[in-house]
C-alpha cells in the first residue's frame, strides 16, 4: 500500500494531515534481484485533522477488511489500527532519528573492528616475513 492508496481509503472518513510509512528493512537488504523493487511497508502513522475522527476510525475499522471487492489486492487483508493518545508527530521523528543514530554507531563499530583485524593480520604478516628472512639467513 502506498501513501496515495492509504489516503484514498482513509480520506473518505475524514481529512488527513500527515502520513508516514516505514519501509521493510529485509526487502531493502535483498541484493542481486534484477526485477523492479516493490516497496513494502511494515507499519505506518496517519495524522487526522480531527481527534474525534481518528478515535472513531480506530474503533470502527480495527480488525475489519480493508475492502470487500474481490478484484482488489487488499480484499483479504484486515486493518490493524490503534489510536495513540498524547502522541505527537515529533515523537515519531525523534524515534527515527534515534534509530538512525544507533544504526550508524553499530556500523562504525563494525568498521573499526574490521580495520583492527586487518591491521593485526597485516602486522603479523610483516612479522612472519621478517622471521622467514632471519631464518633463511641463518
Automatic annotation (TrEMBL):
Per the record, the GO terms for biological process are:
endonucleolytic cleavage in 5'-ETS of tricistronic rRNA transcript (SSU-rRNA, 5.8S rRNA, LSU-rRNA); endonucleolytic cleavage in ITS1 to separate SSU-rRNA from 5.8S rRNA and LSU-rRNA from tricistronic rRNA transcript (SSU-rRNA, 5.8S rRNA, LSU-rRNA); endonucleolytic cleavage to generate mature 5'-end of SSU-rRNA from (SSU-rRNA, 5.8S rRNA, LSU-rRNA); small-subunit processome assembly
Entries under InterPro entries matching the protein: ABT1/Esf2, RBD_domain_sf
The cross-references to SUPFAM superfamilies, in alphabetical order and at most eight, read:
RNA-binding domain, RBD (SSF54928)
Q: Name one GO cellular component term.
A: nucleolus
Tell me a Gene Ontology molecular-function term this record carries: RNA binding
Q: What is the name of this protein?
A: Activator of basal transcription 1
Instruction: Name its species.
Output: Lutzomyia longipalpis
Organism lineage: Eukaryota, Metazoa, Ecdysozoa, Arthropoda, Hexapoda
Amino acid at each position: 500500500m502506498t501513501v496515495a492508496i492509504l489516503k484514498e481509503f482513509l480520506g473518505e472518513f475524514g481529512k488527513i494531515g500527515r502520513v508516514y510509512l516505514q519501509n521493510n528493512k529485509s526487502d531493502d537488504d535483498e541484493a542481486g534481484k534484477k526485477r523492479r523493487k516493490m516497496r513494502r511497508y511494515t507499519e505506518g502513522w496517519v495524522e487526522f485533522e480531527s481527534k474525534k475522527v481518528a478515535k472513531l476510525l480506530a474503533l470502527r475499522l480495527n480488525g475489519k477488511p480493508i475492502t470487500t471487492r474481490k478484484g482488489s489486492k487488499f480484499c483479504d487483508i484486515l486493518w490493524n489500527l490503534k489510536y495513540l493518545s498524547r502522541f505527537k508527530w515529533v515523537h515519531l521523528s525523534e524515534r527515527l532519528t534515534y534509530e538512525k543514530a544507533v544504526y550508524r554507531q553499530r556500523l562504525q563499530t563494525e568498521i573499526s573492528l574490521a580495520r583492527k583485524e586487518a591491521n593485526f593480520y597485516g602486522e603479523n604478516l610483516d612479522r612472519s616475513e621478517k622471521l622467514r628472512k632471519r631464518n633463511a639467513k641463518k
